[in-house]
Specification:
By secondary structure, the protein is mainly alpha-helical. Helices cover 66% and strands 7% of the residues. It has a three-stranded antiparallel sheet with strand order 1-2-3. Strand 2 and strand 3 form a beta hairpin. Helix 5 packs across helix 7. The longest helix is centred in the N-terminal third of the chain and has 26 residues. The termini are far apart.
Length: 257
């Protein structure tokens, strides 16, 4: 099968016309590697080899472009190339080349990722670790870097979360603490990192109680009265973590038998 014409279509890409009227796009690197400027005739086996090599180059150039936008790990780059429908073999060859050339380095990626998490999020160590595990990064690489972080950094983050949530809290002291503990666990913090901080919180239940109780009372009086009103009010306030003493005193102050 003869090559009958070359046409430049991009900076590093040519359209090759073959004797059978078919056309293929090849990178100049492919043309040079296979001496196609000198080798004017190729068989089917050689053509397949050329196309396979060119596909690998295509995947490589796409990956380079992908990696220049943001640092990526091996899995992210592989997943990107899978979406671009490259073969498993092609992706493996490209990943190995990118690792050899330093474009992909999971250790550097972990360092950069953790720095971003510390500087840009309120995530705790467990959440950071779990997110990295999802990227198939070796656990020893993750743990080593996590252990290097000063505990004071996470303490400051916890204090920031607590301060923010206290400002918007409308619940009882006990419920607030319970919900806060669950939230911090979900954010990836360890119990030993936040237990003392949370246990030392002392919210004035009276302020929140009277605000909540007055709102509930006005709402419930539209539907209930007498003992039914008392029962509904008592149940709803108790479910929100307020003490029976507070609730009973309030009900006595606003209702009569």
């Amino acid at each position: 099968m003869k090559i009958i014409a070359y046409k430049k279509i991009n900076i590093n890409e040519y359209l090759i016309k073959l004797q059978n009227h078919s056309e293929i796009k090849l990178y100049d690197d492919t043309i040079i590697k296979f001496d196609l400027l000198l080798l004017k005739e190729i068989d089917e086996k050689k053509l397949k080899e050329i196309i396979d090599y060119n596909n690998t180059l295509s995947a490589y150039f796409l990956a380079i472009k992908y990696l220049t936008k943001k640092q990526r790990c091996k899995k992210e780059t592989s997943d990107y190339l899978i979406k671009k429908e490259f073969s498993k073999n092609t992706i493996e060859l490209v990943i190995k080349r990118l690792e050899k050339e330093g474009y992909i380095n999971d250790i550097k990626y972990v360092n950069a990722y953790i720095n971003d998490q510390i500087n840009l999020t309120l995530n705790g160590p467990n959440k950071i670790k779990q997110n990295l595990k999802k990227l198939n990064i070796k656990e020893d690489i993750i743990s080593e870097r996590i252990e290097q972080i000063d505990d004071e950094i996470f303490t400051q983050k916890i204090e920031k979360i607590v301060e923010k949530r206290i400002k918007t809290n409308k619940k009882s002291n006990q419920i607030f603490k319970n919900e806060l503990k669950n939230y911090l666990l979900n954010q990836g913090y360890l119990k030993e990192q936040f237990s003392n901080i949370v246990n030392n919180i002392n919210i004035d239940d009276n302020t929140n109680f009277f605000k909540k109780a007055n709102i509930l009372y006005k709402k419930l009086t539209r539907k209930y009265e007498g003992n039914e009103l008392k029962m509904q009010l008592k149940n709803k306030l108790y479910m929100q973590g307020f003490s029976l003493e507070q609730i009973n005193n309030y009900i006595e102050s606003i209702t009569t038998d």
